[in-house]
Write a structure and sequence with these properties.
Blueprint lengths: L1 E5 L3 H12 L3 E5 L11 E2 L8 E2 L5 E2 L3 H9 L5 E4 L2 E7 L12 E2 L3 E5 L3 H5 L6 H16 L11 H9 L1 H16 L8 H10 L4 E4 L3 H14 L3 E3 L8 E3 L2 E4 L2 E3 L1 E4 L3 H8 L5 H7 L4 E11 L7 E6 L8 E4 L13 E9 L4 H4 L2 H15 L6 E14 L3 H6 L10 E3 L12 H18 L3
Parallel strand pairs: 1-2, 1-15, 2-11, 7-17, 15-21
Antiparallel strand pairs: 3-4, 5-10, 6-10, 7-9, 8-9, 12-13, 13-14, 16-19, 16-20, 17-18, 18-19
């Protein structure tokens, strides 16, 4: 059997590995010149390690990718406990005595790593803290409940945490992550974020691209044909075969975004199936990476920006997690967004984006940093909108066309996209195909 796998991210790489091990003839197609998809990295001449185009780390309970790494003999993963925090504007009145990370003229960074940090947060009353802590503890300890799919995060959190707790901690995060869809996001998504989070975070020595390169060599040895820089425009059908640029395949696995899959395969799928998938909504990921002489954040690795006065969703000071010695001694910081296609930031050119954001960064940081270089990366359809419409129309492995499978990050629901679930999807797709062909 000849199999085409569309997309060279972790899902495609994992599926290729398991299918090639069973002696299937696999062709892997990737649009970019480098494999890795959303986890792919880049490297400057004076860097020892790759850096991801979008911020990445692992949780200690990411068992799918950790077990897969062990299975294939890749054991270059380490864990530590970087600091996380919350940025909010300074209170008009003098705040209570509290542990502060950084305070500027207009904003304060508060640590938010532990329950003690929450109890010491001066932005909330004691009663608000108890309500918030109880809500988060309930979600952390709870198994998945179907009731989570019957209400929105917005209404549940306002009711349980209270207006003040929700507004300070999560209102702007939802708006910045989901834009106009913020109040429609299901509670199941928020439950999964709380359930999954661990204080200790993992990273791959050499960057995630080092693991990707390792897998590339491994599956090539297993006989997988890899075509990079190869964009598939259309898939056709010839009797029971699929045609990709006149190459015939018995089976196709698309790991591409749903909207891309529907575009290239609309001639082989029923119109109703394609129309339903197109009813799903997505936002695009934008990352601005700054290479500086000093860190923008002194100690914090992950900073949630919960004030509307700073037009950034998150700051990730990568070199407060991974030593700067691997990047030529420079500090690296991500500014991250999820945006609609019509958003002005998505449509800005790179220089204008930097000029727009720089004054806001200087408002956050007490350090006078110098920018040596900056990089901008855009990833369309990176964030599916987990609302009631998503539950109704989301894709699954099977499609109306026999031997055409979908295995993409829409299917990680209720969990957010990530390398762990990409590996899980790739293995599940391979197992399903192997089972079908043993019947």
């Amino acid at each position: 059997m000849k199999i085409a796998i569309l997309g060279g991210g972790f899902t495609g790489l994992t599926a290729s590995y398991y299918l090639a091990k069973k002696n299937y003839k696999v062709n892997l197609f990737e649009k970019e010149k480098l494999l890795g998809g959303l986890a792919s990295g880049f490297k400057q001449q004076n860097w020892e390690w790759y850096l991801e185009r979008s911020y990445h780390h692992l949780f200690t309970n990411d068992n799918d990718i950790l077990d897969f790494a062990k299975e294939v003999g890749f054991e270059r993963i380490f864990f530590q406990e970087p600091e996380t925090g919350l940025l909010y504007e300074n209170p008009k009145s003098k705040p209570q005595s509290a542990k502060l990370r950084v305070k500027t003229k207009s904003f304060t960074i508060y640590p938010l790593d532990t329950p003690i940090d929450l109890l010491q947060l001066p932005l909330l009353s004691f009663f608000d803290k108890i309500r918030t802590g109880a809500t988060l503890a309930f979600l952390k300890l709870s198994p998945f409940l179907t009731v989570f799919e019957k209400q929105t995060s917005h209404l549940f959190l306002k009711k349980t945490m209270g207006e003040r707790g929700y507004s300070i901690l999560f209102k702007q995060l939802f708006r910045k992550k989901f834009g106009k869809y913020a109040e429609n996001i299901l509670l199941s998504f928020f439950w999964a974020r709380i359930k999954k989070r661990t204080k200790s975070l993992g990273y791959i020595e050499g960057g995630f691209q080092a693991f990707i390169n390792y897998l590339e060599k491994l599956i090539k040895k297993l006989g997988v044909s890899i075509l990079t820089g190869y964009e598939i425009k259309e898939i056709k059908k010839k009797k029971d075969k699929f045609l990709i640029d006149n190459q015939e395949f018995d089976l196709v696995i698309s790991t591409l975004p749903t909207q891309v899959t529907t575009k290239i395969s609309e001639k082989i799928f029923p119109a109703e199936f394609t129309q339903n998938l197109r009813k799903l909504s997505y936002l695009h990921a934008l990352n601005l990476i700054l290479e500086t002489d000093k860190p923008i954040l002194e100690k914090t690795y992950w900073l949630n920006i919960t004030t509307s006065k700073i037009p950034i969703m998150v700051l990730v000071q990568h070199t407060n997690f991974v030593d700067k010695k691997y990047y030529g001694g420079k500090h690296l910081t991500y500014c991250g967004w999820y945006l609609d296609k019509d958003d002005k930031l998505w449509n800005m050119n790179n220089q204008n984006l930097l000029n727009f954001i720089l004054p806001h960064l200087k408002n956050i940081s007490n350090l006078r940093f110098k920018i040596f270089n900056y990089y901008v990366f855009r990833a369309p359809f990176a964030q599916p909108i987990f609302d009631k419409n998503f539950l109704k129309y989301r894709p699954n492995f099977l499609t109306p066309e026999k031997n055409f499978y979908i295995a993409n990050l829409d299917m990680t629901y209720p969990y957010d996209r990530g390398t762990n679930y990409a590996v899980k999807l790739g293995k599940e797709a391979a197992v399903k195909i192997l089972a079908e062909n043993l019947r």
